[in-house]
Amino acid sequence: KKFVYDFNEGTAEMKSLLGGKGANLGEMTKIGLPVPGGFTVTTEACNEYYVRGAKLWDELKEEIFNHLAELEGKTGKKLGDLDNPLLVSVRSGSVFSMPGMMDTILNLGLNDKSVVGMANATDNKRFAYDSYRRFIQMFGDVVLEIPKYKFDTILHRRKNDKGIEHDTELTWEDLRDISELYKEVVRKEKNIEFPQDTREQLLMATEAVFKSWNNPRAIIYRRLNDIPNHLGTAVNIQSMVFGNMGDTCGTGVAFTRNPSTGENLLYGEFLLNAQGEDVVAGIRTPKPIAELDRLMPEAYQQFVDVCNLLEKHYRDMQDIEFTIENKNLYVLQTRNGKRTAAAAINIAVEMVEEGLITKEEAIMRVEPNQLDQLLHPTFDSEQLAKSTLLTKGLPASSGAASGKAYFTPEDVVHANSLGEKAILLRTDTSPEDLEGMVACQGILTARGGMTSHAAVVARGMGKCCIVGAGEIRIDEESKTFTINGRVYNEGHAISLDGNTGDVYDGEIPTKSPELIGNFEVLMAWADEIRKLKIRTNADTPKDTKQAIIFGAEGIGLCRTEHMFFEESRIAVVRQMILSRNVEERKDALEQLLPMQRQDFIEIFREMGSRPVTVRLLDPPLHEFLPHEEEDIVKLAKKMNISVSQLKNVVAELKEVNPMLGHRGCRLAVTYPEIYEMQVRAILEAAIILKEEENLTVIPEIMVPLVGQLTELKYIKNLMIKTANEVIQEKGVKIDYLIGTMIEVPRAAITADEIAEEAEFFSFGTNDLTQMTFGFSRDDAGRFIGEYVEKNILEKDPFQRLDRAGVGKLIKIAADLGKQTRPNIKLGICGEHGGDPSSIEFCHQLGLDYVSCSPFRVPIARLAAAQAAL
Ligand code: PEP
Ligand code: MG
Hints:
This protein is α/β, with parallel strands linked by helices and 869 residues long. It contains 34 helices and 33 strands. Among the domains are: 241-339, D-amino Acid Aminotransferase, Chain A, domain 1 (2-Layer Sandwich); 377-511, Phosphohistidine domain (Glucose Oxidase, domain 1, 3-Layer(bba) Sandwich), CATH 3.50.30.10; 530-620 and 655-868, TIM Barrel. Strands 14-24-23-16-17-18-19-15 form an eight-stranded mixed β-sheet. An eight-stranded parallel barrel has the order 26-27-28-29-30-31-32-33, surrounded by four helices. The radius of gyration is 32 Å and the shape is elongated. The model has no long low-confidence stretch (mean pLDDT 91). The protein binds phosphoenolpyruvate and magnesium ion. Residues 557, 559, 618, 743, 764-767, 829-830 line the site of phosphoenolpyruvate (PEP). It catalyses: pyruvate + phosphate + ATP = phosphoenolpyruvate + AMP + diphosphate + H(+).
C-alpha cells in the first residue's frame, strides 16, 4: 500500500487521504503556482500508526526516505549536508482544518554541522543561526514536549541584557549562543543530546505529528466541531523557503476577503525578515498587507494575482500563507478561509451576485449553527454613545460581549462555573488557552494581528474578539491591567465591540438582532427551496414577536405551564394544586381563567393568521409546589389551613419519579377541571378576537403525554363538551383542532389507533428520547458525556435526534398515522426541531413542520433548505 505521495501526485479531490493542506498543495502544484516541493504522508498512515501500537514501521520509513531522495534530487540539496543543506518543514494536515490545534516544525535538517554549511551557502551566519535556534525550540516544544517558555526565557534574557526590543536586533553570535543554551535546556529537561541525525529528526517529527492528532487540544477542538476521531492527520514535508534571510524577505498570511465582515478586499498581514510562526503566534504585531505594495511592489502584484487565481479556482474565499525569499514569492498553503457567520453570509451572497456560485451553493456554504452568532443581541448604539471608551484594538471577530476581566483560562473557567460572565484578557493567546476561550464571553489581547491564534480561533467559534490592543499592559502576576497609566483589577467589568475593536468601561446594555441585508437575502433563497414549514416554541407575546421577526410561520408548541410561573400567578396555581376538593380547585381555576385568556389573546393577536398549537398543562405538579418556609406560611394563610396541614399535602404530592409520574394528560384524568378551564380560555380568546378584531384564529389544541387511544378519547370528550358549552354561551362558532403529542413510545407504535381521534401529531422528542432510551432528561447529562467520549454514543441524543431508535419510532408513527388519516398534520416540537441534523431527518420523513425556539428559527430555515438540496 502506498502511504506517501509527492505533491505532484495530489489533487484537491484527495482531501480525505492527503488532508486539506496536502490536497491543496497538490492542486496548487498542478495548476503551476510557485509551491516549494515536497510530499505528504497520508492520513491512512496515521491510522496505521495507531493500529501498530503507536510505532513507525520499516516500510513506511523506507517510503519516506525514497520521497526524500527524490526531493533532494529536485532541489539539488541534501538533508544534513555540510555544504548546502536541504531544510524542510513538517506540518500536520487533517481533512478539516484545525487551526492552532496541531503542530508545525520548521527548519528541520539543521544540526551543529549543517548550520555551518548553511551559513556558508547563503553567506549569512545570522540567518543560519536564527534558523537553528528556531528549530531547536520548535522541535523541543513539539517533539520533545519541553515547555516553550523554558526557551523563551533564554531569548528574553539575552534581549534584556543587551537592552534591545526586537529579535531582529540580535547578532549572529547572540543567536549561536542562544542555540547552545537551548541545547542545554534539552539536555537538562530530557537527559539527551539534541538529535544530530537529520533523518532521525525527520522520523521523530513525523511521529510527533501523528501523536498530536490525539493531544488534548485537538480532542477538544474535534469535540466542539463534531469532527470524527477516526480521520487521522496527514504529514506534509516540504522544502523550506526563507522569509528570514534579510529585508528582501518576509512571510505573511492573507485572506482573499475579509473573514470578519466578508468585505471583498484582500485582507492580511506580513512581517519582513521573519518566519511563519512569527505572524500567527502574535509575538510581533505584523503590518497590513497593503504595505507590501510599497515595500516590494512586484512581489505584491504577483501575490495579488495568485490570490485572484486561487479564489476563482476554488470558488471560495481563500486563506493563503506565503513567503518571499529574496523578492521571490512562494505559496505555502491555501485553504477555504474560516469566517464569521456575518462574513459567510456576505461572501456567499456576493459570490452569487458575481456569478461565481449558484444560489444553491450559497445556501450550502453557510453552516446553519453558525448563524447563532448573528442571532444574539448587539450593543444598542445609543447606549454605546453614552459609554466610556477605554481603548481600541483590531476587530478580529464580530459580536458584542460584556463581562468581568480575568487573565488566565483557569480563572475564566472558574468564574464561568460560578455563573459569572467573563472576558479573557491575554497579552497574546496560545492553543493552551482554548478552554478559557470557550468559557468566556469575549477575548481581548494586547498583542497580535488579525490572523493571530486568538483571532483565528475566536472567529471559528464565533466569539467576539479584539486583538492587538497595544495600549493595554496585562500583569498576570498581580492580576491587573493598565491602560494609559490607570490600573484596573481582576473582575473589573468591560465591554468589547467586536465589530469596531472598541473596548468600553462597564457593562453595556444590548438590543435584539434583526435579519437585514444579505442575511435577509439568503433567508429568502432558503425559503424558496425548503419544503418544511418552520414554527416556533413560544409561550409569551415577547417570544412570539421575536420569532416572527426571525420568520416563524406559526407556533408549534405553546407550553401553557410556563405561563403559570409568573410571580402573580404562582400563588393561585399552588392553591389550585393543593385544593382538597373540587370546589376549592374550581375557585382557583376561576381566578386563573382570565389570566390565561388574556395570554392567548395576546399571542393569537401577535401571530395573526398563522397557526398556533396550544398544549394543555403538562408538567409534574410538584414543580409548582412551594418549598420555601415563607411561601408555605403565606399560602397556608391564603388557603385558610394550618402550616402543618399544608406541609402534609405537599408531602403527599411528592413523587419518586416525577418525570414518569402524575403529569401530562394524566393530570386531566384526575382533575378534568384543569383542562376544561384551559380549553375555555383558548376558545374564549379566539371568540373575542373574532368579535372585536375580526381575526379568525383556528386554535390547535394539543394533549400531552398520551400513551393510548382510550386516554385521548376520554380527554377529547371532556374538551369537546367544554368547547360546545363555550360556543353555545357566546353564540359564536369557532373552528378548532384537537391533536396530540407523540412522546410516549406506546403512542408511537399505536399511532394508527391514536390517529382515529387526533387531527394532528406533534413529536415531543424530548420525552420520546427520554422514554426510548430510558435516560432521565434531567440527570443523563452526568454520564452521557462519557458515552460520547467512549464512542458508545456518537452524540448526545437529547441534542441530535437518534435516527436508529427514536427516529424509527417517529417513522413508524408517521406512517401509521397516515394510514388512518391520510392528511394528518405532522410536526416536531422537541429541542431537536432546531437541530440541523434532526431537521434533515424530519425532511426525509416528510413531516409538515419543525418547531424550535425563536432564536433557532433562522437556523431551522437554512437547515431545512439544505435538507431539500
Ligand atoms: C417534548 O417532550 O419533546 C416536549 C416538547 O415537551 P416538553 O419538553 O415540554 O416535555
Ligand atoms: Mg414532553
